[in-house]
Amino acid sequence: MISLSRVNYKYKNSNDEKIGLNDINLNVNKGECVVICGESGCGKTTLTRVINGLIPHFYEGEISGRVLVANHSVIDEPIEKTAEVVGSVFQNPATQFFNIDTTSELAFGCENQNIPANEIVKRLHEVIENFELEDLIDRNIFKLSGGEKQRIACGSVYATKPIVYVLDEPSSSLDTHSIHLLGKILKKIKSLGCTIVISEHRLYYLKDIADRYIYMKQGRIVNSFSQKELYNFNDEYRSELGLRTLNLSDLFRKETVIEKHQEQLIISNLRCSIGKKRILQIDHQMFNKGNIVAIIGCNGAGKSTFSKCLSGLIKFKGDIKIGNVKQKNSSLSKNSFVVMQDVNSQLFAETILDEVTLNIKEYDDISVRSLLEHLGLDMDLETHPMALSGGQKQRVAIASGMIAQKEIMIFDEPTSGLDYRSMKNMSAIMHDLVIKGSYVFIVTHDLELIMECCTHVLHLENGQVMGNYDLDKEGHQKIIEYFDQYNKAE
Fold first, then answer.
1. Ordered domains of the chain (ranges, CATH)
2. Which of 2, 175, 224, 390 has its Cα between 20 and 30 A from that of 283?
């Protein structure tokens, strides 16, 4: 079904020889599910772009070798020919939308293929049922959360019924329930005889779906593992490979000691609405400086809205105080930094170095380069940020926040595109931030990150606080049950 022979690729204007593909040989059989894994920047996304034709027809560069998908020569034929058999789900779903409302987006691919109207309606009903999209129909796409956008993107591709699915980090913005649902959908797709190629860091939900794991490093395929071989690896070897956990229930809280300060961030009678609809209501909550707070909850629960209030990006009613000082939107905006979920929307400069120093007038070059090395960005700093992988872009944005040294640091899904090693480095950075006196809030669906560095959990659902607890022994049990609830329900 898919055959790549001696494929080499280098992005246009890239000075880093590691960014691209080197001598790729890969065959994927009909009906097989292959997971492309490896550390951030290893070439996973680039490989998916070669298979679905975005390379060389959208991303310019130098390519050689042969790429066949369902007997189509991807390199030589127009991309619309490849699109007839390949459906793609991108890491950033917003980049594949063509409509304003969700229903039109779900139907767009079918309309583009000139499928009869009655068949489109039939497929829409099937997609809505299988993806549990009832609550997202006839909604404005731009008002959806990142995870809700990802569900629409998956559904729109499923509606066109391709025979090959190429997915790039599809779970990166999804909540626990949506990841579980994605796994069920992938099982169904596979049962229909379709071929699946999926680039992923999160591996636990693919346990009963994947046939092979292709491990990449520096643009090369260096190994291939069966399902059984991968799950026989001990934790030490898996960690050396930079791979994430294979079983959520095996995770445990890392014991860390962080000095707590007397100062508190206090929220009272916080209200936030869109039109007449209230989307966030918090009566009273307190957070000690020195805590690393994980903000959890389903997609659309109000997590990003809470972050925007803390950072002064949207108007709200009520009080937010730091110590005894009441904060206005302007002061919150001045004293905070947000690493956004859609990292592409906050990258502005022409080079990595210019990007990470954009928010400051003077900087110590040695300290900046040391931080970038700590984040795994010790490459040519003249590289354009948009030429990087999703995980690398995320780290560039995080470096910008670190260098700016704001009092409130808010991270919206900071590990969505990060491998195990980068997640560990991220954890160390969070600890450095609180030691230096920042309030740290992390909007996340990443249980590994929570167990690695967080000290506290704020659980939001439907815009209200469902829980606010320390990650002590009792809190550890709560968080495990929350993330593992759907696996236990099977």
1. 2-250 (3.40.50.300), 264-489 (3.40.50.300)
2. 175
